[in-house]
Amino acid sequence: MNNTIAIFKREFAGYFGTPVAAVFIFIFLLFLFGLTFFFGFYTGEPTDQADLQRFFFLHPWIFLFFIPAISMRLWSEERRVGTVELLMTLPVTTFQAVIGKFLAAWCFAGLALLLTTSVWMTVNYLGEPDNGVILAGYIGSLFMAGAYLAIGAFASALTKNQVISLVLSVLICAGFVFAGTDMVTDPLGVVLPAVAIDTIRSFSFLTHFDGITKGLIDLRDLIFFGSLMICFLLANAIVIDFKKAA
Amino acid sequence: MIEIRNLSKRFGHLQAVDNVTFNVTKGEVLGFLGPNGAGKSTTMKMVTGFLEPSAGDVSVCGHDVLRDPIAAKKCIGYLPEGAPLYGDMTPRSFLKFIAEIRAIPKTERAGRIDDVVSKVHIEGVMGQRIETLSKGFKRRVGLAQAILHDPQVLILDEPTDGLDPNQKHDVRQLILEMAKDKCIVLSTHILEEVPAVCTRAIVIAKGKVEFDGTPAQMQGMSDQHNALSVRFNSSSGVQIADLEVIEGLREVRIGSPWGDESCFTLIPSSDANAMQSVTDMATNRGWKIEHISIDEGRLDEVFRQVTGGTAS
């Protein structure tokens, strides 16, 4: 536990060692707000409703590019610089290191998400939104970010090149996002039975995130994101151990 | 304190370490020598638990590195090759991080850190980002990290590589100070370091142990062991032929690679007292000896012999 905390602290502070973190958060907010206010309304007529549906609608898509950027350096950088040898010869278990790093990235993502709450204040100023729904949206978003990060951490463990790690995690995450879109399920529906299509759809971030943004925190959705995190963090640890034996 | 049994490591087709067996005990400073790619670093990585062996066992302070890695890692201080460090941290925050992971009690942390910092002389750069430090300082921060928890076993992969002669001297002093109650393994390419700090040397080539003994034994294997270097006054006009008649000499050659014809290297046949014979001869013939010395033996020559490089 202490080891995990020590690694967490080091890793979290590492995000702020350079101005990159501030720049990252700035661009993240710029994109999220910009798209929400200028393009978020293409989905239909203005509704005159004080809610954050269109803000949350964008999260899976914005996360697709921003979250892997948070996780790409977790292991790649250690491997490139060689510090992984230092870290893994300290008396820490692989899993303590995996968890410590993941939590640091998750907290950083949480911080970025926390800074978007100005939009929450805005809708409260303009109208009377259902704050419960918005809170549910934030919780769902945080869980989804965790799933993206776990995938990103796994991809980062595979290579010492951060760019490859970024591309790889964007690809895997894109798979999980697009699995729920009609453009994937419609053509597949021609060749695959409905059960298979439902299964594919059930792996999509969109399917699980959609309900949450409407205010329905279904435990199953949170379990989906939670188990995805556990699976990819286990895979992350296995990759690290495998490289030891290779 | 370190027990290595039949240790092997294979990377695909490459047999990096091949059936290596040796022990290192407390008080020993083992110099680990070998050409690049001989398997030194790979062996050290297996001892520290960074790599898993393909076959064989390693135990450190009685803990099997494979079965109980955490207990083994607790008694090891390790400086990996090239001293990799977190460049975005300062030495202070880095050492605090290490102290936390090494579970040094909170009340002792500051004291321990001050102690090692003064040992490796990095007081002046404690607040500077590590990536901005010179190679010498980085190496010393790495060393500070390795000795922070006062480990029983210290494994240093090329600790003096890239340091200037003063820094090398400091590091050697530090190793000598710690040697008494620790077990230290260090790899190096600098052969003069071996008699200076090591109590024992192991030469490894192509993954196999080719020599294991004291630095003196290693010097003894040299062709030049006990060879006499003599320089006569040039007016003496000594020729090779004049010296070749001396009894007990196996070989006489011009001693200077640049052909200074008054310098000679005389290689005695075993245990002949060549010094006496030469000085006697010089007195009889009236030659003036300007310089005479007995060679301890050339480690680089032995190194080339045992590692399969071309011996001179």
Show unreliable segments of chain A.
none
What is the mean pLDDT of chain B?
Answer: 87
| Rg value of chain B | 24 Å
Number of distinct helices of chain B: 11
End-to-end CA span of chain A: 28 Å
Oligomer: heterodimer
Number of DSSP-assigned strands of chain B: 14
Structure notes:
The complex is a heterodimer of chains A (246) and B (312). Chain A has 246 residues and is mostly helical. Chain A has 13 helices and no strands. Chain A starts with a helix and ends with a helix. The longest helix of chain B has 15 residues, at 106-120. The mean pLDDT of chain B is 87. With 312 residues, chain B is an alpha/beta fold. Chain B has helices spanning 40-47, 69-74, 91-101, 106-120, 135-147, 165-179, 193-197, 215-220, 240-244, 274-285, 299-307; strands spanning 2-11, 14-24, 29-33, 55-60, 63-64, 76-79, 153-157, 183-187, 200-205, 208-213, 228-232, 249-254, 263-268, 289-294. Chain B contains eleven helices and 14 strands. In chain B, strand 1 and strand 2 (14-24) form a beta hairpin.
